[in-house]
Structure formats: C-alpha cells, structure tokens
Amino acid sequence: MAQQAYVAETDNGGSGPEHRGDRLRRLLNRLVSGWRGDPRIWRRGIVVAALAVILALVMLLHARIPNRIGNLGSLTETFLPWLGLLVPVLLLIALVRRSATALIAVVLPAAVWLNLFGGLLTDKTIGGGDLTVATHNVNADNPDPSGTARDVAASGADVVALEELTASAVPVYEQALASTYRYHSVQGTVGLWSKYPMTGVRAVDIKLGWTRAMRATVTTPEGRVAFYVAHLPSVRVKLEAGFTARQRDTSANALGEAISQEPLKRKVLLGDLNGTMNDRSLNGVTSQMRSTQGAAGSGFGFSWPASFPMARIDQIMVQGIEPVTSWTLPRTGSDHLPIAARVSLATGS
Questions:
Q1: The Cα angle at residue 209 between residues 203 and 211, in degrees rounded to 5
Q2: Model pTM?
C-alpha cells in the first residue's frame, strides 16, 4: 500500500519542468491546430508574400533606385532603417491569414534588414581614447543659446563644433564657452572651440556663396589633427519636386574634395550634413571617412528631429583615427540633438 501511494503521488504531481513542457506543447498545438490539414495555407497570402519580396528587394537594391525622379533613391536611403518596421506588420498579417507562403516570404526582408543594420544594435564601445569631440546644430532660433552652450560643454568634449550660428548669438556662445575653451574661431555660420591651440584656420568653399564650412589644425598632446566643420544645405521633401537636394549634393562633393586634399593624415569632420551615411549623394565624404557611430556607437544614434529623432543627419567622421565610443547627448533648445565621440589618436595611422 505504501508503494502504491508513492506511485500515485508521483504520477499526479510530476516534475515542474515536465508540466511546463506539457503546457508549452498544448499551447503550440492550439496555435497550429487551425493550420493542420488546410491545403490553402500555401495558396493564401500571395499578396503579402509579394509585398515581403518587394520590401526585401528595396532594401537590398536601394543603391539602384534612381535619383532622376525627385531624388527618390536618396529619400529611401535617408529613412532606410525604418523600413524594418514593415517586417512585423507583414508577419502579423501572415499569421492572421494563416499563410505559410507569406510566413516564409517575410523571412527575406527580415534577413536583409539584419544584414544591413544588425551590427548597429550591438554596443561596439571600447575603453580608452585620448580626445573627446562634439558637434551640435544649435538652431538659429534657439531660445536659450547660453544654456545650450553650457550643456554641450558639460559633455567634457575637448573640441566642440557648432553650426547654424547667427551674428547676434555668437557673442553669447563665446561668453558661455570662454571658461572651458581657450581657443575658438567662427567662420560664417559655423564655429570651432578647442582646449588646445588652433592654427591654420580658414573658411572652406562648399559652393554656396557664403561660409558654412571651415577647417583648422588643432595641436593636441598626441599631435596635430585637421578638423573640418560643415553645415551642408538643407533638403526638402515636396509633393511636386520630391526630395530636393541638388545644392546639398553639390556642397557635399566640394567638401569631400577639400578633405581629400588635406595634407594631415589625421582628420575629423564635425557637422550637420543633412544626410545619413546611407545616402549615396554624400559618397564624396563618406567614401573616405568613418562614422564614429557606425564604428564604435550603440544603436542608430538618431539626432533629428530632437522631439522624435528619426535620422542621424549630424555626423562625426574620422580618418586616420580610431573611434572608441560615440553617443547622443541630451536635448537642448535646438531642434537637433548634440552628438559626441571619443577617439584614440595614438592608434591612428
């Protein structure tokens, strides 16, 4: 009788993992019960499957989308990461439709998106570094330029670039940053502030007719570094004209040419490029420099608009220098978020 009671107790109670396994199996059985024996699971959802294939092709072949009509290619590339949001939507529709064909097809855009942007989801930050830099489009209509300047200086950056400076706001920024940065220069609507000596300061012609780019040599404890600050022309999305960016593209090519002729091997570009690293129209710049966010950041690092960042159009790029970390700073009175990076000059070529 004792043995019988023991057996009964074991059969009724069972082990925890076994019961959890039984519950999981029952749940899976309920989920797939509607699919079993249904020959239409392969015929349903053909439209959803087709949309999934098209989405995969758009992401995979985005460089082939022509710019002749409204700069459609650049517009797609600017917001390319957001196309990934369509994947769970298509997945949900495929599940609701109970379509095996659609489910298999959805794997394609998911794989393409992960191949393009999966690396950005990991934290590539490493320790070390010997120079911190920051850049911020402060917005010409910024209601609190003094507070914005203090916020950027609080990042601990050794070198800071500001864009969209107005003549009336420059003295405010100069006063607010004077105690932290001994050296600075303002050229047109862009400026550079540094804790280290600056020489060779000059405006850079980016084919606008007025100054929105500059260059300077900063002599750091690890040697000289060429700094470029740029604010490329804005782009517009218009119903009648599409993604209008011709002037931006012309300026990007001019900036890329100036950087390529720089005699110093170690270079840093700070600024608002009004375009992302995926935008082919910025190839004149992006083909010769590395994004600190892409190389050593965590996540996408979107910087604009500040209220709901959707794209990283503010960039920190380097050549001959090793990025060790890159991040986005808290919101200021601007419509852009400031961004910062720490780099290693000792390991740069």
A1: 30
A2: 0.83
